[in-house]
Each structure stands twice: as C-alpha cells, then as structure tokens.
Design goal:
The complex is a heterodimer of chains A (302) and B (334). In chain A, 68% of the residues lie in helices and 0% in strands. Chain A is an all-alpha fold. The longest helix of chain B has 41 residues. Chain B has a two-stranded antiparallel sheet. Chain B is 68% helix and 1% strand. Chain B is flat. Chain B: It is a multi-pass membrane protein.
C-alpha cells in the first residue's frame, strides 16, 4: 500500500519540453488548468467535510442566548461550556464505562480471535472452508437477528441486565470480523516460516506466539483499533442491555439523550458531541497507518 | 511435530523391533494430535458460534411461532405472528420500502461519491496528505455523535445549513423533521462519512497499470473514454464489493435513523416518554428498528422474531452474492 505516492496519470510533464514550441506551451497550459481544476474541486470537497466540524465547534462555545439564534460566529468564547459538560452528572461515569467496554472488549477480542484466525489460515483440516463460510455468515449477521434470545439469556437467566457484561463476555469467544481480517493477513505469511519454526522444535502455540505474532503486528493493531472503535461507537448494545441503568450507560448511548435529559441548549450538546468525537480522532492520528491498512485489508482482495 | 528424524521404518521392520510403534500407528497418532490441535485453536470460536449464533437463531425461529412477552413460558400459536407482521403491521412494509429507497439512493450515491473522491484524491498534487486526512476524518466520527451534530446542522429552526440556503435564496427543507426529506438528510450524513470507501477506491485506483492509460492516450482516448475503458473495468470488482457491503450495511441501518428521529422529534427517551422509531411519520423505519420496537417496547417477542428472521433471510441472501465471488474475497492458498 503506497498511500504517499501521487501518480502522474495523464499530465504533461513540465520541464520535459523546454523547446518552447507552441504544442509544448499548449500542453503546459493544459497541465496548469488541470491543476487548478483538480485543486478547486478538492477545496470544495474539503469544505463539505470540514464545515460540519467548524459549525459544531463554533456553536459549542456560544453562550446560551446566542445558541438559540441562527448566528454562525460566537460573540463571546465560552470555553467554560466544556467544563459544564464535563461536570454534568453521569458524564464521567459514561466515560469510564465506555473505556472499560472498549478496553476489555478489544483485549478479549484480539486474544480469542488470533488463534482461530491462525488455524483457519495455516492448518489443513476437513471443513476448513465450511468454517470460514460460517465466520463470514456470522460477520454479516445483523445483531438484531439474535437479540431477543440473547437478551432473555443474559437478562433473565444470567441476571446481567443493566450492565455491559452481556456485550463484553461474548468477545472472549472470538469476533467474526476480527477473525476474518486476521486470517486474510495471516494468509500472506509464507508457510516456510511456520515450517521452519516447527522443524526447530517449536510447538504450535510457540510458533504462533514467537514467529507469527511479531509478523502479524500490523494486522493485530488494525483489528484492535477496529474493535475499539466498534465498542466506542456501539449504540444498539448499550441500548438493549444498559438503558434501564444510568450507571451503566456509555458515551454513545448517553449523548443521544443529553439534550433532553439535562435540559441543555445546542451549545452544550455540541460541546458534548465534540468531547465524544475527540478521543477516536486523536487515536486515529496516532495510529493512522495501521487503520488505513486495516480498511484496505478488508476489501481490496478483489 | 516432525517425523523426519523419528523412527521411520518400513512395514516389515516392526516385527524385528516390537517396542517401536509402526508407521501406521505413528501416522494415526499424528493425525489425532493434529485434530486435537485444530480443535484447541478453534475452540473459542466454536463455543461462540454455538452459543451466540446457532442457539439464538434456532431460538428465534422457535419464538416466531409462539406467543411470548418475557413472562411465563412461550405458548405455541402457529402462524399468528407471521400473519400479524405480514398483514396487520403496515410499518413492516413501510420499513421494507424505506430500506429499498436507502439501497437505491443512499448506496448508489455513496459508491459514486466514494469513487469520485477516490479519483479526485489520486489527482491532487499539492497538499495531498492534508486533503486525504480531511476527506477521511468524518468517517471516524462516532455515528451517534455525527447524527446529533447533523440533527443540529440541519435543524429547520436555527441550523446553519438552512440559514445558508436562505441567504442564497434557496428553499429550506425540513430535513429530519419532514417525512419527504428525512431519508435525503440521512443520505447526506452517510455521504459525509465516505472515508472507508475513499480508501479502498484510492488503493484500487493506484493499482491500475499506468501503461493502460498511456496506451489509451496514444490511441487518442479523451478523459471520459479513459475513465470508461481503463479506469472502470479495473475498479469494477471494488465497485461490486462496495455495493454488496453497502446493501448489507443498509439492512442493518439502525443507529443513525433512530438517533436522528429521537433528536429531531425532541423526545430523547429517559424522561419516561417512549419514542416510537420512524419519526417523522414512519419515514425512517427500518427492519432492525422494528425488532427493537416489537421486542423491547411492545414486548411482543414472537412478532419481533418474525421480523428478525426476515432480516436474517435477506442478509444471508446478499451475503451469498459476496461468497459466490469466492476467488477474491476468500483468497485460499490451496
């Protein structure tokens, strides 16, 4: 994956024609026009993607009065709005719950999915393709399809309603999407490495941990990020299992009712919205490469 | 486990050394050990598959033929739930129609826009890194946060978008508050988060062999013809992938629709008020919301399971299209 290189597809190369002929000048003018057209479009697109953030931010620092108007620009910069959101009853608890859910969920997913992905990628056994199809079927299953029996199981039989455990515990049993993504990556590791380790007397588990794991670090990072984002963003899960207990809410679930529940204006709601967006965006900047690699790993094997 | 340095003996030699195990015996032991090893590595998922897939699926099918509200035990009532959902629940068909709309409009526009942004970003020379990050960023916004933000940006009263449209003398739709505009508003939100498609289109566009463009140019092909005869055939597998995964995502469309409805309607749960999805006037109903509504708001588990099964059938049908293209999607080394 070379994301950094920008290819020259059709442009005439400036400098290649220093002879000053009319044709060369026309070609250079075309190249300049092309540059201008492409970059104008890119700026227009950038405005489409950025302006929502800008308006949300500008509103988040307005005072209560101004937030009820159609003004774009704040007359005074009320940074205290962020403090107010932070001090809203429950907000810190939602943060802690979200971190526990996303942290534990990510760790459990990686630990339980890696061996399964390894077996699907490197072991030969009967029914391997069937197992892979089952993984894909599970990956494509909308969570709502199984939610009624699962809810009855967790809430009525296990007594875990009103908590996030029904969402965390299943992640100790492999996550279909993570298994699939890891398997796609492990397929690319030449089997000579695995065989060499075996000849050196490594058992399967040791081979996985000592040889395969270090090579699969980028894929593991991508899977961990995806799972962290999934948990952070999950709305349906907390809605089903935790809606009746404020103490177990997550940021994503709490944010939606923030405006109504706390009788707040748009300014505080937008401040809360930015506070929920910020961590994932910061995380992305630290792990950009792993993330983009992961996105391409899912789809580009076409 | 290596047999290479072990006691590899011919079939006859076993007789001269009764203590040594025969080759066949060794082989069988090896095979058994391999099976045990495979089972051990797969075990987390095998349990998960049984407990979180097979069991609830069978259970859902069973509940769909029973009357059950969570108390007591389910009682068999034949096809009553199916008749109820298919004949007496107009919102079911409305939800299906909405889903078809979203597939036709939202998925199509998203794929076209993703390809367009991908084409654009591969041609940007100056500030490519900046533009790439900016185009990708909205995809990272958590769906609930992005939806709440758009509910503000598009709110008909004080929203900046309508204010802007007004200043330009353009009509100001009601967006999430208007049944005719709620799905277009959701489409706009979906197009804002185009980052995932941009990245996979960008990767495949960079993989198109440059020689093909040069050859086409030599043959006198203009920009449109180059796109039609060089770019499009090269990225068509990715377009197919994007369409199929887009349809699967649309079948699961839930969070944005329900959050937009809640925020726009002003009823955001919590205060004891119950929000019925689909606001405004059922224009944002989707099947997953119906499972939630029937199961967790109306406690009609039987009917909820009928909708869940319909959702399952459609999802698996779409998935099978993806699986038929096995060659690429499930690359195999044998």
């Amino acid at each position: 994956m070379t994301l950094s290189s920008t290819p020259t597809l059709t442009e005439a190369r400036p400098g290649a024609s220093r002879t000053g002929t009319a044709a060369a000048r026309a070609a250079r003018r075309r190249a300049v026009l092309h540059w201008v057209a492409v970059h104008s479009l890119a700026i227009a697109a950038a405005l489409f993607f950025l302006l929502p953030f800008v308006f949300v931010f500008l509103t988040s620092v307005m005072d209560d009065q101004q937030a009820l108007t159609t003004d774009y620009w704040p007359t005074s910069w009320n940074w205290g709005n962020y403090g107010k959101v932070w001090d809203t009853p429950g907000f810190l608890t939602w943060w802690r719950n979200t971190l526990v859910y996303a942290g534990a969920g990510t760790l459990l997913t990686v630990v339980s999915s890696l061996p399964v992905a390894y077996a699907l990628a490197k072991f030969r056994f009967r029914g391997r393709n069937l197992a892979l199809m089952a993984v894909i079927a599970m990956m494509m299953l909308p969570p709502q399809v199984t939610v009624i029996p699962m809810y009855l199981f967790w809430a009525k039989q296990m007594g875990l309603g009103g908590s996030l455990w029904p969402l965390i515990i299943p992640m100790a049993f492999g996550d279909a999407f993570s298994i699939f993504l890891l398997r796609q990556f492990l397929m690319t590791i030449p089997k000579e490495y695995v065989e060499a380790a075996r000849i050196d007397g490594c058992g399967d588990l040791r081979t996985l941990l000592r040889v395969v794991l270090p090579m699969a670090k980028p894929a593991i990072a991508a899977v961990a990020l995806f799972q962290f984002f999934y948990c952070w963003n999950d709305y349906f899960g907390p809605q089903i299992y935790a809606s009746n207990n404020h103490q177990a809410w997550t940021l994503s679930y709490g944010l939606e009712s923030f405006k109504a529940a706390h009788h707040t204006n748009w300014n505080l709601t937008m401040a809360a919205t930015l506070l929920v967006m910020a961590p994932v965006i910061v995380l992305f900047f630290f792990a950009q490469k792993a993330f983009i690699e992961g996105v391409t790993l899912t789809g580009v094997k076409g | 486990m290596s047999l290479a340095f072990g006691t590899r003996k011919g079939p006859g030699t076993g007789a001269t050394d009764p203590a040594a195990p025969s080759t066949q015996h060794l082989l069988r032991r090896k095979r058994r050990r391999e099976a045990a090893r495979t089972l051990a590595f797969l075990s987390p998922w095998l349990i998960g598959f049984g407990v979180f897939f097979v069991y609830p699926l069978v259970s859902t099918a069973y509940f769909s033929f029973t009357q059950y509200n969570g108390f007591g035990s389910p009682t068999f009532n034949g096809l009553k739930n199916w008749n109820y959902v298919l004949d007496e629940l107009p919102t079911f068909w409305q939800g299906l129609r909405n889903t078809v709309w979203l597939v036709l409009v939202m998925v199509t526009l998203r794929v076209a826009f993703g390809l367009g942004i991908g084409l654009l970003i591969t041609r940007v020379k100056t500030g490519a890194g900046f533009f790439r990050t900016v185009f990708y960023l909205p995809y990272l916004a958590p769906p609930v946060a992005a939806t709440v933000a758009f509910a503000f940006l598009l709110n008909p009263g004080t929203g900046p978008l309508n204010h802007l449209l007004g200043e330009l003398g353009l009509p100001q739709p009601g967006w999430f508050a208007d049944p005719n505009w709620s799905k277009p508003a959701l489409t706009l939100l979906a197009m804002w988060g185009i980052g995932d498609l941009m990245v996979i289109f960008m990767a495949s566009l960079l993989d198109v062999p440059k020689e093909q463009y040069e050859a086409a140019e030599l043959d006198g092909a203009g920009p449109f013809q180059r796109f039609r005869y060089v770019t499009l055939p090269n990225v068509s597998p990715i377009i197919m992938f994007a369409v199929v995964t887009g349809v699967i995502q649309t079948m699961q469309y839930y969070t944005q629709a329900i959050v937009a409805g809640k925020v726009a309607s002003g009823i955001a749960g919590n205060s004891g008020q119950q929000f019925e999805p689909g606001f405004p006037q059922g224009s944002t109903w989707t099947l997953p919301q119906m499972v939630y509504n029937l199961g967790f708001q109306r406690f009609n588990y039987g009917a909820a399971c009928v909708v869940a099964l319909v959702l399952f059938a459609i999802s698996m049908a779409v998935t099978s299209i993806l699986l038929r293209r096995r060659s690429g999607f499930m690359s195999s080394d044998d």
